[in-house]
Design a protein that fits this description.
This protein is α+β, with helices and mostly antiparallel strands and 602 residues long. 38% of the residues lie in helices and 21% in strands. The chain has 15 helices and 22 strands. Strands 1, 2, 3, 4, 5, 6, 9 and 13 form an eight-stranded mixed beta sheet that branches. Strands 15-17-20-19 form a four-stranded antiparallel beta sheet. Helix 1 (25-38) links the parallel strand 1 and strand 2 (46-51). Helix 1 packs parallel to helix 5, helix 2 runs parallel beside helix 4 and helix 14 packs antiparallel against helix 15. The chain is elongated and about 120 Å long.
């Protein structure tokens, strides 16, 4: 894949003719595809994008693209637009200024693209067609007839190129899938074209299209991946392909590498089969060291040997091999990501996941459970984000799969729909002036004079003012420093508890030494204040356990974004505090129980 590689992406989603429905996907598809093809770590293509250009500009660019191709080049052309069929059954690609009844003059014909492909000197040419296809216009009629099905790949059938050159055409769907009605395209009659390009981008970015895990993605592998991906999500859409090419053409690099296990050295194999089980235990220790090696082939061979010992050896040796395997498994931190409530349409939130374990365990690939979940490799592990375009509750598992086994990461988010702002209260309008009339004198009567009617005759009363609606202030986000502070406080209390237990033991020993010279043991214990020391030990041990539990619980709450190191520090501090506080609590309780017994009998 060190030969020159060039890609031209043509995307049209805006059309001047009212009969062509505006598309939403091509613009986003062009950006995503250009990014992955231009990534030096993935596609390593020189990419040009042509968006919403007129037909003559597209034809000029396409002809120049193929004419400039050199013998060792790999050329990729991608169309994302409307595909139209003429009355004679020929295929055309719609441009911004395309008029459906003047296709020859205002659209780009498939025959023209085919002609350019046959004239290029490049040995490898690949064409991707992600198009919505329509029916045929009938000349001399204001209506549009559906016409017979046109298989897209038939437009690119022809003589062999020869000269060692080859080409391939891959389409989002082979047959025409909806027709014009009147001057409009039938709404909703065809699948969204983004499904095909999304599968291409996803397969190249994640490396999932590298089906044989050899580190390179071939055209055949990409097609097989895209075919399964599209059919799984839309059974009514069937991608197609036609290939006239000798050998494989590789389109991208892949981060997936198939690790081939290396045979363990003969001396280590002999130790594994030694009749002395101590020698076999030594072999387990040596294999554990090999599993942690950065040499993945050596590490995988050692891991397979440990699995063999676990299955076939005696219990003592098998248990040691099982513990060695457990210490080399993949450990994601954290194991649960809760993004909490996220407004719909907001920028995608990101969370980091640290992958712990030896290099063999960290050499894994992420398999999201849904399209709403996004993953990207980082130096520490993974960056996980969620799509905020669709409201609702999102719950799924992120499967991390590698040569050393699998691990599951739970991902949750709640995408809240956007709410329109409340309407502003109507502005108060001044009352109309009273009508001019000759002055009259009238005597008030009991029926008209009422204190409950203070408004002047003919003048409507002012409506009561409506207070503007108030919106509740959002709750302050949780501080990302809270869990480490709680865990640190728990560790301090645990250390105080251990110190109190030690001091109580020292005082008890001193009281026992004084008893040898006479006196009552209970009186000596009371004089040393051992009851107060035990009370401090009990209180601090219980406090350490409570704070440690609160710190662990705070990690599972939906906080603000925190670095992965904060989660690891919190867990380590909480675990250490618990390790110290539980023995101190048990010893203090035993001492408290024994204290009244000692006072009574000694």
């Amino acid at each position: 894949m060190d030969r020159p590689r060039h890609a031209l992406i043509i995307a049209n989603d805006r059309y001047e003719d009212g009969g062509l429905r505006q598309l939403r996907a091509p613009a986003q598809d062009a950006v995503a595809l250009a990014e992955v093809l231009g990534d030096p770590q993935v596609g390593d293509f020189d990419v040009d994008v042509l968006r919403n250009e007129p037909a003559h500009a597209i034809r000029r660019t396409v002809e120049r693209f193929f004419s400039d191709g050199r013998r060792d080049d790999t050329l990729m052309l991608h169309f994302s637009c409307h595909g139209l069929k003429s009355e004679s059954g020929h295929l055309y690609f719609a441009a911004r200024d395309t008029e459906p009844r003047l296709l020859e003059a205002t659209a780009v014909s498939a025959a023209f693209v085919r002609h350019c492909m046959t004239r290029t000197r490049a040995r490898r040419t690949v064409l991707f067609l992600d198009c919505c296809y329509g029916g045929a216009f009938s000349r001399g009629s204001s209506s549009v007839r559906a016409g017979g099905d046109l298989h897209v790949l038939d437009s690119f059938a022809g003589e062999k190129l020869g000269g060692g050159r080859g080409w391939a055409v891959i389409t989002a769907s082979d047959a025409m899938e909806y027709a014009f009605e009147g001057a409009e395209l039938a709404e909703g009659a065809a699948p969204r074209p983004s499904l095909f390009t999304h599968a291409v981008v996803e397969g190249l970015t994640s490396g999932e299209a590298d089906l044989d895990a050899d580190g390179e993605i071939s055209l055949d592998e990409l097609y097989d991946y895209v075919f399964d991906h599209v059919r799984q999500r839309n059974p009514h859409q069937t991608p197609g392909r036609t290939v006239d090419m000798q050998g494989d053409v590789y389109l991208a690099h892949s981060r997936r590498r198939r690790v081939v296990p290396r045979k363990i050295p003969p001396a280590l194999r002999a130790a594994m089969e030694d009749p002395n089980f101590y020698a076999r235990l030594g072999a387990v220790a040596e294999l554990h060291t090999c599993v942690e090696s950065p040499d993945l082939s050596l590490a995988l061979g050692a891991r397979l040997a440990l699995e063999e010992i676990e299955q076939n050896d005696i219990r003592v040796v098998a248990d040691e091999a099982r513990r060695a395997l457990a210490r080399t498994e993949l450990r994601p931190d954290p194991v649960r990501l809760d993004f909490g409530r996220v407004p719909q349409g907001s920028p995608a939130p990101h969370r980091g996941v640290q992958l712990l374990g030896p290099p063999l365990a960290r050499s894994c690939t992420a398999h999201p459970a849904g399209d709403w979940m996004r993953t990207e490799e980082t130096r520490e592990g993974l960056d996980v984000s969620v799509d905020t375009s669709t409201p609702g509750r999102l719950v799924g598992d992120l499967l991390l799969k590698g040569a050393a086994g699998e691990a599951v990461l739970r991902v949750e988010a709640e995408i809240q729909p956007t709410q329109a702002p409340p309407p502003a209260p109507p502005a108060a309008t001044p009352p109309p002036p009273p009508a001019q009339s000759p002055p009259t004198v009238s005597m008030p009567t009991a029926s008209t004079a009422s204190p409950a009617s203070p408004a002047a005759p003919g003048r409507p009363p002012h409506p009561p003012a409506t207070p503007p609606p108030t919106t509740p202030r959002p709750a302050a986000p949780r501080s990302s420093a809270r869990p480490p502070l709680l865990a640190g406080a728990a560790l301090v209390l645990a250390l105080v508890s251990v110190g109190a237990v030690v001091r109580a033991g020292v005082k008890a020993k001193a009281a026992a030494d004084l008893t040898r010279h006479g006196g009552d043991l209970g009186e000596h214990l009371g004089a040393f204040g051992i009851a107060t020391t035990l009370t401090v030990a009990l209180a601090t041990a219980v406090g350490a356990l409570i704070l440690g539990a609160l710190a662990r619980h705070a990690l599972t709450a939906p906080p603000t974004r925190r670095p992965p190191s904060a989660s690891g520090t919190t867990r380590s501090l909480a675990w250490t505090a618990r390790l110290l506080a539980i023995p101190a609590l048990v010893l203090a309780l035993l001492a408290v129980i024994a204290y009244p017994i000692v006072n009574k009998y000694w």
